[in-house]
Amino acid sequence: MYDMAVVGGGPGGYVAAIRAAQLGMKTVLIEKEPTLGGVCLNWGCIPSKSLLRNAEVLRLIGDAQRFGIAVGDVRPDYAAAVDRSRTVVDRTTRGVAYLMRKNGIEVRRARATLRSEQVLALDDGGEDVRAQQIILATGARARSIPGVEIDRRRVLTSREMLETRTIPPRAVIIGGGAIGCEFAYVLAGYGSKVTVVEMLPRLLPQEDEDVSRELEKAFDRQGIQRRTGTGVEGVESGERGAVVHLQGGEALECDLVLVAVGVVPNVEAMGLEEVGVATGRQGIAVDGLMRTSVPGIFAIGDCVGPPLLAHVASAEGVVAVETAAGLEAHPLDHVQMPRCTYCIPQVASTGYTEQQARERGVEVKVGRFPFSASAKAQAAGDATGFVKVVVDGATNAILGTHMIGAEVTELLPEMVMAPALGVTADTFERFVHAHPTLSEAVKHATMDAVGLAIDI
């Protein structure tokens, strides 16, 4: 009998297993894939960021003359970029396997099915796993849309895209969220003619509207086309290419179609109904401490629904384990979770957008700081974008931060911690930021919201 069984070895599952082992629990981790790390490490966050870095380096080389550097003939090798991404993945997943051994966590390679609140049947031919408590961290998989068959030849999901070793001359990306925008930048950077189709009125529709508009301007400069406010009626795929049929009658001819319209939770054939674990439209139903409807069974990560982010899954894993151990755990504030998109320019945000704050009836004040006014951004040669801070006009509480520009994903921690610690916009003047740094923009934008801006 184990103290804890974790089903799923992604960022939620393996973190939960480690935390359980740290608390002295005899722990088993069950993962059906050959390597640990889940979609994020194997077919998502990590390999895609490697390819994004390659595309960024290629862009910098192409822009070298502006920095006083002469370069000769540049011959990009996308296959080599993919090889590098797989090397990064291999190193990262081997690191996770090492952490399992270091923490004394048994790993079973199998698919698990609930038999009761304390029994999991595995398809590896071995004995059932019996555990006092169970955490389900089964993740999610790519979603498709009616009229679009993912044939994994011309019509791909992000997983197949990460294995593709050639750049298509023409690509259509269905979905203008984070995944779609990141791949648009990579493909366009390597010379593909890219069109992004998004059903909602703008790219990154979950982000602040001002940020979306700034990204669209940047994509225009990069030659990335878009069709926003437009749905897809169907896709024809053949030997010589594909045709994407849009609402309104337009047809986009291309060589490759990437479907990036979100994911669906992995909750089928797990024995949930038989054991009585409640589910909903977004996945397994849980409370703030990640408890399901069955005592002793917890669920975390993408299988419980948004926000579908690796770091959220990891944090939920810790909450679940500490609750299972009888410790005082605290529900997560999902609104203030950091959100990142790693195309160039990068997009980073936390908290409420300006529109969401106004819809809540809040008297809103907004502060801004453009990177064109940042000495560090100018010196680095990329002053695109801005920082925007949304503040409660009555209390000066920081409700949300929204950024677009070079390396803005590295500026988020301060603006995640500030609301959690009760730091208000009018107290930011006390915090000295090093000069010259990009982080000064966060301070200046926050102070601008309360009329205390100095450098703009």
Summarize the helices and strands and which ones pair or pack.
Blueprint: E1 2-7, H1 11-22, E2 27-31, H2 38-43, H3 45-62, H4 78-102, E3 106-109, E4 112-116, E5 119-122, E6 129-136, E7 140-142, E8 155-156, H5 158-161, E9 170-174, H6 178-189, E10 193-198, H7 209-222, E11 225-228, E12 232-238, E13 241-246, E14 251-254, E15 256-259, E16 263-265, H8 272-275, E17 279-280, E18 283-284, E19 297-299, H9 310-324, E20 339-341, E21 346-351, H10 354-359, E22 364-370, H11 375-380, E23 386-392, E24 398-405, H12 412-420, H13 440-449
Parallel strand pairs: 1-2, 1-6, 2-3, 6-19, 8-15, 9-10, 9-15, 10-11
Antiparallel strand pairs: 4-5, 5-6, 7-16, 12-13, 13-14, 17-18, 20-21, 21-24, 22-23, 23-24
Helix pairs in contact: 1-9, 3-4, 3-6
What do these coordinates show?
With 456 residues, the protein is of the alpha/beta class. Helices cover 31% and strands 25% of the residues. The protein contains 13 helices and 24 strands. The strands form 6 sheets. Strands 1, 2, 3, 4, 5, 6 and 19 form a 7-stranded mixed β-sheet that branches. The longest helix is centred in the first third of the chain and has 25 residues. The protein starts with a strand and ends in a 7-residue tail after the last helix. The model has no long low-confidence stretch (mean pLDDT 96).
